[in-house]
Amino acid sequence: MKQTIGVLGAGTMGAGIAQVAAQSGHAVVLVDLNKEQLDKAKSNLAKTLSKLVEKGKITDAQKNEIESSIQYASDINDFAPCNLIIEAIVEDLAIKHKVFESLEKVVSENCILASNTSSLSIASIGSVLKNAKRVIGIHFFNPAPLMPLVEVIPAVQTSSQTLNSSVELIKSWGKTVVVCKDTPGFIVNRVARPFYGEALRIYEEGIADFATIDWAMTHFGGFKMGPFTLMDYIGNDVNYAVTESVFQAFYYDPRFKPSFTQKRHKEAGFYGRKSGRGYYDYSEVAILPTPTKNEELGKQIFNRILAMLINEAYDAVFMKVASEEGVDLAMTKGVNYPKGLIAWSKEIGQKNVLTQLEQLFAFYGEDRYRPNALLRKVCETI
Ligand code: NAI
Fold first, then answer.
1. Which residue(s) pair with 135 in the sheet?
2. Is 131 an annotated catalytic residue?
3. The model's pTM
4. 90 CA distance to ligand 1 middle (Å)
C-alpha cells in the first residue's frame, strides 16, 4: 500500500533509504539541513537510475516516476503527512534526542518514528518521546539499495503494532527482515567483531602478516574480502569507532577488546582506501604484498577466526538477540558471509569448534576465548 515515508538526513544512508522507499512506490519526503547534501542526493539518484535504465532494469518512465516521488526539503514540517519517518543523521544521542522531540510535534499520532542508528540503543532514543510506543530501530546496511538485510529492533517501549507494521512494510520493499533485541551492535555489528579483532590479534602475535591472513580467509573461508582488505574498505576510523563503542557498551567484555594496531593506524590517518593508505598502500606505484601461501598456517588462521565468529553467533542466539535462522540470515544478507555461522558450525561439527575454543582458552588463559554456554550445551546433546 502506498504510504508517505519521511527520511531525515540525506547522507550515505538516508539517500539510499529514500531510493529504496521510492522504488517501492511510496511518496518520499527527504529532509536535510544541508542543501548541498540534498542536491548531491538528487544528482546521485539521477545517475544511479540512468544506469539502471541503460541496463534495462527499469524504464525511462519508471525513472521519472521514482524521481518525482521524492520531495527534497530542509524543513521537518514537510514530514506532517508521513506514516513512517526513518532518521539517518549524525550518530550523536543528544542531537537525535532533539530531533525526535521535534519530529513528534510535527507528525500524526500514528506515525512510526524509526532510527537507522548503528550503535545507540533504541530505548535511549525513544526516551524523549511522549508516545514511545512508536519508536523502533530500522537498520539498513550500506549501500541500502543493494544490501538485502534490514535489522528491525523493537525497544522495550515499542508496541507490537509498531513492530508488526514496520516488519510488514520493510518486507514489502523486498528486504530480508531480521527482528533483533535492542542490544549493542544488534546482530551484524556484534557477531562480525571477531572477523576483525581476531585477525588483528593474530597479526599482533606475529603469526602472520596482513596479506597472509587475508589470503587464509578468502582462500579457505570463501569470504569475498579478507579482514584487512575489508577494514581498509570500511575505513579504520569507522571500524575502530564501532569496535570501541561495542566494547564499552558490553561493559568492557574482553571478547570485544579493540586492538592497538588498528588504533595506531587510525591515529596515523591510515584509514584505508579513502586516505590512500591503510594496512595496504593504495597509491598507484604501490606493490601489493604477497601472502605466504603455507596451507597449514592458512588453515590454522582460518579455523581460529571462524571458531571465534561461531562462538559469537552462539552467544547472540543464547542471549536471545535473534533466532539461529535470524543470526545466519543477518550475516549472509547483511555482510555477504559465504555461509551462516550456525549452519557452518553444524557442517564442520560443533564439537570441533568447541575443542578449538577450549584449546585457545587453555593456552592463553584469557576470557576472550571462553566457549559459549549454548555451544557447550549443544555439544552435550550430540
Ligand atoms: P552521513 O554523515 O553520510 O549523513 C548524515 C546526514 O545527516 C548529513 O547529510 C547531514 O547534513 C544530515 N544531518 C545532520 N544533522 C541533521 C539534522 N539535525 N537534521 C537534518 N539533517 C541532519 O551519515 P551516514 O553514514 O548516512 O549515517 C547516518 C546514520 O546511519 C547514523 O546513525 C549511522 O550510525 C547510521 N548507519 C550508517 C551506516 C554506514 O555504513 N554509513 C550503516 C548503517 C547505519
1. 113
2. no
3. 0.96
4. 4
